[in-house]
Amino acid sequence: MLYIHIKLKIMKKLSAIILFSLFALTANAQIEKGKVQVSGSFNISSIEVNGIETNRFDLTPQAGYFLSDNISLGVVLGYQSAGNSNAKDKLFSFGVFSRFYKPIADRFYFFAQPQIAFGTGETAAEADISAFSIGIRPGFSYFLSDKISMDMSVQGFNYENREEGANERTFTGFSLNPNTVNVGVSFLF
């Protein structure tokens, strides 16, 4: 019992130190004309349907330049892997985006990110994949300091045309599903 009590006291002190450190880092966000933003996001999900588990991994680094206060234009790269432990589809993509920020509170912003991308890859059955997508991702940014923010976005509206070998599929939709959440970190220079 004494061990648990001592451990709780240490955890409380450690939590207070971490919280104080985060507040010490905070300052007004500096998303203004001429700044460069480098960020990345990832998505890891696992869905089981009828006893078959499908895993998905997305990695999306991007860089943007602020054309004016709260508006940036940039490029985005992507890697996507989806499937099970035996076979996975893999897709590499390249695109351009713009991001429009709207302040909600001090250091807290809503953003909309229209984006267009092209992709190429291979299915688990070794068929070629060709993809085109256009969409708008809504999200939120919280600036931990004037140079670092935590970003969270969802898929929002998306149109995708995808050819896999002789098969062609088109997806259109709007999603705020938690399975489409991307979490990332942005750095401003």
Structural class label: mainly beta
CATH architectural grouping: Beta Barrel
CATH topology: Porin
Strand content: over 45%
Uncertain spans, ≥5 residues at pLDDT below 50?
A: 1-8, 19-28
Estimate nothing, just give the exact number of structural domains.
Answer: 1
Radius of gyration: 20 Å
Count every helix, treating DSSP H or I runs of 4 or more residues as helices. Answer: 1
Strands of the widest sheet, in order across it, are 1-2-3-4-5-6-7-10
How many strand elements? 10
- Give helix and strand order, one letter per element, not per position: HEEEEEEEEEE
Q: Which word captures the global form? A: elongated
Sheet with the most strands, sense and barrel status: 8 strands, antiparallel, barrel
Q: Percentage of helical residues?
A: 10-25%
Distance between the termini: 50 Å
CATH class: Mainly Beta
Overview features:
disordered N terminus; 66% strand; 189 residues; 8-stranded antiparallel beta barrel; mainly beta; 1 helix; Porin; Outer membrane protein beta-barrel domain-containing protein; OMP/PagP_B-barrel; 13% helix
